[in-house]
Write a structure and sequence with these properties.
973 residues; alpha/beta; 7-stranded mixed beta sheet; 5-stranded parallel beta sheet; 30 helices; 46% helix; elongated
Length: 973
C-alpha cells in the first residue's frame, strides 16, 4: 500500500525537519516546499493527500496561497491545515474563512501533530463506514481532543454533535436525544461519571448508551464503578479513537442497561474514590507531559543554537562550543564534552564546556577511562553512569574525577556513520528516563551539525581547488548572466583576447555576443543552449581587443535551479587558430593533390593517345623519307612530299607536348645553368613576342646547377613567355628572373608538393589582364583555354606542368584580374658542374647481312620497319604477335641474330617474349621498340637489362643505326 503524501509548506528549515521526522516516523511520505510558488507547482503536478501550511511565507501571504490551492482542480478537496505560531494570523484566517480545514498553533507536541494528521488521513484499510449516519454526542472540555474525536467518528460514518462539559451535553441530549454519548471523565461543572449517572436516571434518556473515555490508564475498580452507574463502557483514549468507536458500535447493538442497583450513599463513596484516583493519575500524566515538554523545548532550543552556531561559527570547535553552551543551558546540565572520531581511529576532544582549563588534559583522556568512550561509540543507546552495564568501581572513579553525580554518553551517528560521542555530566540531576531520549536527540543534531561543518570544510577546500583551476587554467573560462553579460573571466581568457586583466576584459566587453566576429555564431550558440542546455566544441571566429581575429572552440552549459530557471552560463574557450590555419593549409594541399591526380589521369590518357599517334607518325615520317630518297630534287611531287614531312614533324611536336604533359616524353637530362639557357634564347623570344611587348631578363647569379633536358627547359620558357604575350593584347612588359631559393617543408601555394631543400627559381612575370581564382584552378588542364576558338591548343601551360613535374620540380602561380600574372618554376639544384654538349649524329644508313626477327602488332609500322631493314641488307622474319613469333622461333631460331620487338602487345609483352627465347639462347641480343616512354613501361630497369629501347616515332636512320649498334655490341662481347 502506497504511503499517504503530506506537503509541508514552511520556510524555516529546522521546523520543516522536525515535522518531516515526526511524520516520516508515522509512515507518511513528506514533500517539502520552502515557499508558496513551489507549493503550487507541487499541488498542480502531484496532488498530496494533506497540506500542512505556514501562514507567513517569503513570497506570498498564506491566505493567498490557500485560495490559489483551492482554485486548482487537484486542490479543491485536499485537507489544508494552517500551522502558525502567530495567533493574530490564525484568527484572521478563521474570520475570513480562507479555506483552511483546521488550525494548529506552533509549537505543537509531535505526538499531537501525528494524531491530528491521522484524524484527517484515516487508515486506508477501513472501507465500510459502520456509523451509517447515526448521531453521536461527543463531550470533552479539551477543544483539540473534541475536534480530533469528531473527525475520527465522522470518518467512520457517524453524524456528530459536540458539547464542552456534562451540563451542556445534558441540555443537548434532552433537546434531541442522540443514538449514543461519548464523554471524557474529568470535566468542569459536570464530569463524565455524573453525566452517565444522570442520563441513566432520566426516564427519557435512560436507554442511551454512554461510553466513558480517559487519557490515563484504567484499573478494574474504574470499570466496575462505570458499570455500576450505568455506563456502557469505560475505555482508554487512543491516538485514533479506535477503542472509543468500537465501544460505541458494541453498545448500539446491546440491550438497554438494567436499573442501577446501588444506593446513593454507596455510589457517592465509590464516586469520590474514583474521582480522586482519576485526578491522581491525571496529575501524574500531566507531570510526565510537562517533563517531556521541557525536554522537547530543550531540544528546540538546541536546534536553534545549532542553527545559530552553523551560521556564525568560524570553525568546527567554535560551533561545537556554542552547541554545548546552548545544550547545557537548555537542559540545566553543568558540564559536557564532544569527542570526535579521527581518520586514524582516535577519539579526540572536539569541545568541552563547564571544565576549567586546568582540567583539559583530564577531559581529553576522559578522566582515565577512554575505553568507556569506545563502548559508547559502538553502542546504539546512551551509556549511563552509574548503571548496571558499568562496573561499580569504574563508575565511582569516573564520577569522582568528572565531579559529577550522573553522566550520559551518547554515540553521535549520522546516516550510519559514527562520528563521535556526546557526554553530558550533571552534579545534581539524575540523567535517566527521558534524558536518554533527549541526549540521543541532541547527539543526532550535533552529528548533523558536525557533518554539515565537515561538508562545509570539504566544499571550502573544493572551492579553493576549483578557484586554483580557474585562475591557473591554460584555457579560457568564463561565467555570464542569462542575458549574456560577462560576470567573470579567468586570466587565460583575458590573455587570449589581449586584455591586461580579467577585470579589464569584463568591463570592456560587457556582453559575450560582442566577442563574435559574426552575429550568426552567437545566435547559433544560444539556439543550441536553448535546445540542449549545453554546447560542446562550437567553432567560431572571435575578435581580440586589438582588432585581430582568432578561432576558438567554445563549450558552454546553462546552469538552472530546481525549477528550471536559467541562473547563468558557464563556458570554456580553446584557441584553435593554429589548428584552423593548419587545416586550411591541409585543405589547400588536398585540393592541390586532387588537381594533381586529375592531371595525372588526363596525362595517362594523353600518353595513350600519343603512343597510338606515334605509331601513325612512324609510318608517315618513314614512308615520306623513303620517297624523298627516291626522288630527284626537281621532281614536281617533291614539294608535296616535303610538305607532308614537315606537317608530320609538327604532329610529332604535338605528340611530344602530350608526352611531356604526361611525363612520358623521353628526356636527355644534362647539368645546366638556367641563366645561360634563358640568355641564349632571349633574342628568339624578342622576335617571337613582337615589338609592342618589352622583354627583360634579370639573371641572378651565380646560380646553382640543375639537371634538365635543355630542349624541354627552353620549351618551358617559350610557353610561359608566349602565354604572357597573349595576356597583353595591347602590349606590355615581360620579366624573366632566375634566382637561388630555399623551400621549406610546407609551401601551400605550390601546385606540386616537394621536399624541402635548395631550388633554382625561374620566374616569368607579365603586366597583362591577370586571371580569376576559378581560371587559376584550371590553367594546367590540357586543352583548357580562355582564348577564342582557333587560337591556341590549350596545351601550353599543361606542357609546362608536365615537364616541371617530370623533372621533379614544382610550379606556383600568383595572379589577380587586372594586375598581371607571375609564374614561378622551381627545379631542384644539383652539385655537379655543367655537361659538355653532345655532337650531332650523321645521316648515313649503316648496313648489315644478319637475320632479324621483327615482332610488331601494328601492320603499317611492321611493314615500314621491314622495308627499312631489308634496304639495309638484313634478312627479316616477320611476326604480327608474340604467338606467331614463337612459331617462327621454333622453326628458325638458330638462324636468328637479333630480335626487334614492340613492348606492349596483346597476349604477351615484348619483355616476356624476350625472356622466353633467351631460355634457349641466353646471349641473343634484343632491341625493344615502343611508342611509350620508358617510365610508362612498368619495371623499366628490368626491361633495359634485357635490351635497349628505341622510342617511336623513329626515322629510318634511327632504326638502322640502333639495330647496327646492338648487333655490333653483341658481336664484340
Amino acid at each position: 500500500m502506497t504511503a499517504r503524501a503530506i506537503l509541508v509548506v514552511e520556510d524555516n528549515p529546522i521546523t520543516r525537519k522536525v515535522v518531516r521526522l515526526t511524520l516520516q516516523g508515522e509512515g507518511y511520505t513528506v514533500v517539502e516546499a520552502p515557499d508558496g510558488r513551489t507549493a503550487l507547482e507541487i499541488v498542480a503536478t502531484t496532488a498530496p493527500d494533506l497540506i500542512l501550511q505556514d501562514l507567513l511565507l517569503p513570497d506570498m501571504d498564506g491566505l493567498d496561497l490557500v485560495r490559489q490551492v483551492r482554485a486548482l482542480p487537484a486542490g479543491a478537496g485536499i485537507p489544508v491545515l494552517a500551522f502558525s505560531g502567530f495567533l493574530p494570523k490564525i484568527e484572521e484566517a478563521r474570520t475570513l474563512q480562507a479555506g483552511f480545514t483546521d488550525y494548529l498553533f506552533k509549537p505543537i507536541e509531535p505526538s499531537l501533530l501525528a494524531q491530528t494528521v491521522r484524524a484527517y488521513l484515516p487508515a486506508a484499510g477501513r472501507v465500510e463506514q459502520p456509523g451509517r449516519g447515526r448521531r453521536i454526542l461527543l463531550v470533552d472540555d479539551d477543544p483539540v481532543m473534541l475536534k480530533l474525536m469528531r473527525i475520527a467518528f465522522e470518518n467512520q460514518g457517524f453524524a456528530t454533535e459536540t458539547a464542552r462539559d456534562g451540563l451542556e451535553a445534558l441540555d443537548r441530549a434532552r433537546e434531541a436525544p442522540p443514538d449514543a454519548i461519548v464523554s471524557d471523565v474529568l470535566m468542569p461543572r459536570l464530569d463524565g461519571f455524573r453525566l452517565a449517572l444522570t442520563v441513566r436516571q432520566d426516564p427519557d434518556l435512560a436507554r442511551l448508551p454512554v461510553v466513558l473515555v480517559s487519557s490515563a490508564y484504567l484499573e478494574d475498580a474504574d470499570r466496575q464503578f462505570a458499570n455500576a452507574i450505568g455506563a456502557s463502557a469505560y475505555v482508554v483514549r487512543t491516538h485514533d479513537f479506535s477503542e472509543s468507536i468500537d465501544a460505541v458500535l458494541a453498545a448500539l447493538h446491546e440491550t438497554p442497561r438494567p436499573a442501577i442497583e446501588r444506593t446513593p450513599e454507596e455510589l457517592t463513596e465509590a464516586y469520590s474514590q474514583r474521582i480522586v484516583r482519576q485526578l491522581e493519575r491525571q496529575v501524574g500524566l500531566n507531570l510526565s507531559l510537562a517533563s517531556r515538554l521541557s525536554v522537547r523545548q530543550a531540544e528546540l532550543s538546541i536546534l536553534a543554537g545549532i542553527d545559530e552556531a552553523l551560521r556564525d561559527a568560524q570553525s568546527l570547535e567554535a560551533m561545537l562550543y556554542k552547541v554545548l553552551d546552548r545544550c547545557l543551558d537548555s537542559a540545566g546540565v553543568s558540564r559536557g564534552a564532544v569527542y570526535l572520531l579521527e581518520l586514524d581511529g582516535r577519539l579526540s576532544l572536539g569541545a568541552s564546556f563547564g571544565y576549567p582549563d586546568s582540567d583539559r588534559d583530564a577531559v581529553e583522556r576522559f578522566f582515565g577511562h577512554a575505553d568507556m568512550l569506545r563502548r559508547a561509540l559502538g553502542g546504539e543507546e546512551p551509556l549511563s553512569v552509574p548503571s548496571a552495564t558499568v562496573a561499580a568501581n569504574e563508575a565511582t572513579d569516573v564520577l569522582d574525577r568528572a565531579k559529577a553525580s550522573s553522566i550520559l554518553l551518547a554515540p553521535v551517528i549520522v546516516g550510519g556513520e559514527r562520528l563521535g560521542v556526546l557526554v553530558l555530566a550533571s552534579g545534581a540531576t539524575t540523567l535517566q528516563a527521558d534524558w536518554t531520549t533527549f541526549v540521543m536527540s541532541v547527539a543526532n543534531r550535533i552529528g548533523h551539525a558536525v557533518g554539515l561543518m565537515k561538508a562545509f570544510a570539504r566544499v571550502t577546500a573544493a572551492e579553493e581547488r576549483y578557484r586554483n583551476i580557474f585562475e591557473h587554467a591554460v584555457e579560457g573560462m568564463f561565467q555570464a548572466a542569462p542575458e549574456g553579460r560577462l560576470l567573470i573571466v579567468n586570466p587565460a581568457m583575458a590573455r587570449m583576447f589581449f586584455h591586461a586583466s580579467p577585470a579589464e576584459m569584463v568591463a570592456a566587453t560587457g556582453d559575450v555576443a560582442r566577442l563574435f566576429v559574426n552575429a550568426t555564431g552567437s545566435v547559433e550558440m544560444m539556439r543550441l543552449l536553448g535546445e540542449r542546455g549545453i554546447v560542446s566544441g562550437l567553432e567560431c571566429e572571435m575578435r581580440r581587443c586589438d582588432g585581430a581575429s582568432i578561432w576558438v572552440a567554445i563549450s558552454v552549459r546553462a546552469v538552472r535551479d530546481e525549477r528550471g530557471r536559467l541562473l547563468r552560463l558557464e563556458g570554456m574557450l580553446v584557441d584553435i587558430t593554429e589548428r584552423r590555419r593548419a587545416e586550411d593549409a591541409l585543405r589547400q594541399t588536398e585540393e592541390q593533390l586532387r588537381q594533381a591526380q586529375k592531371l595525372e589521369a588526363i596525362g595517362q590518357l594523353a600518353g595513350g593517345i600519343a603512343h597510338d599517334f606515334n605509331n601513325l607518325l612512324t609510318v608517315i615520317l618513314g614512308r615520306a623519307r623513303i620517297l624523298q630518297d627516291t626522288m630527284g630534287p626537281d621532281d614536281p611531287a617533291r614539294r608535296h612530299l616535303d610538305l607532308i614531312h614537315r606537317t608530320a614533324e609538327r604532329a610529332a611536336g604535338l605528340s611530344r607536348q602530350l608526352l611531356a604533359f604526361s611525363r612520358k616524353q623521353p628526356i636527355q637530362p644534362r647539368v645546366l645553368d638556367v641563366s645561360s639557357v634563358v640568355t641564349s634564347i632571349a633574342p628568339m623570344l624578342r622576335r617571337l613576342i613582337g615589338e609592342d611587348v618589352e622583354l627583360a631578363v634579370e639573371a641572378g647569379g651565380p646560380l646553382w646547377r640543375v639537371r634538365a633536358d635543355i630542349g624541354q627547359l627552353e620549351q618551358i620558357v617559350i610557353n610561359l613567355v608566349v602565354n604572357a604575350r597573349d595576356a597583353m593584347p595591347g602590349g606590355g612588359h615581360v620579366v624573366i628572373e632566375t634566382a637561388n631559393v630555399e623551400l621549406g617543408a610546407q609551401e601551400p601555394r605550390l601546385q606540386v608538393p616537394v621536399a624541402a631543400g635548395r631550388y633554382v627559381r625561374l620566374a616569368v612575370t607579365d603586366s597583362g589582364t591577370g586571371m580569376s581564382a576559378e581560371v587559376q584552378r584550371r590553367i594546367f588542364e590540357p586543352f583548357f583555354t580562355t582564348k577564342e576558338p582557333g587560337r591556341g591548343t590549350g596545351l601550353g601551360l599543361s606542357t609546362v606542368y608536365g615537364i616541371v613535374k617530370q623533372h621533379e620540380g614544382t610550379i606556383a602561380v600568383d595572379s589577380e584580374v587586372g594586375r598581371g600574372t607571375r609564374f614561378e618554376v622551381y627545379l631542384p639544384a644539383v652539385e655537379s658542374a655543367a655537361d659538355v654538349a653532345v655532337a650531332e649524329v650523321g645521316e648515313m644508313l649503316p648496313r648489315g647481312g644478319e637475320t632479324l626477327l621483327l615482332v610488331e602488332d601494328e601492320d603499317e609500322v611492321r611493314s615500314l620497319a621491314r622495308e627499312i631493314l631489308q634496304v639495309c641488307g638484313y634478312t627479316v622474319l616477320e611476326a604480327a604477335n608474340p604467338a606467331e613469333a614463337l612459331r617462327v622461333w621454333n622453326r628458325q631460331g638458330t638462324q636468328i641474330h637479333l630480335v626487334v620487338t614492340d613492348v606492349v602487345m596483346p597476349g604477351m609483352s615484348g619483355r616476356e617474349l624476350a625472356e622466353h627465347v633467351r631460355r634457349s639462347r641466353p646471349d641473343l641480343p634484343v632491341l625493344f621498340v615502343s611508342g611509350y616512354a620508358p617510365e610508362a613501361l612498368g619495371n623499366h630497369a628490368a626491361l633495359t637489362e634485357i635490351g635497349p629501347l628505341l622510342e617511336k616515332p623513329f626515322t629510318p636512320h634511327g632504326l638502322a643505326t640502333r639495330v647496327r649498334a646492338v648487333l655490333d655490341a653483341a658481336g664484340a662481347s
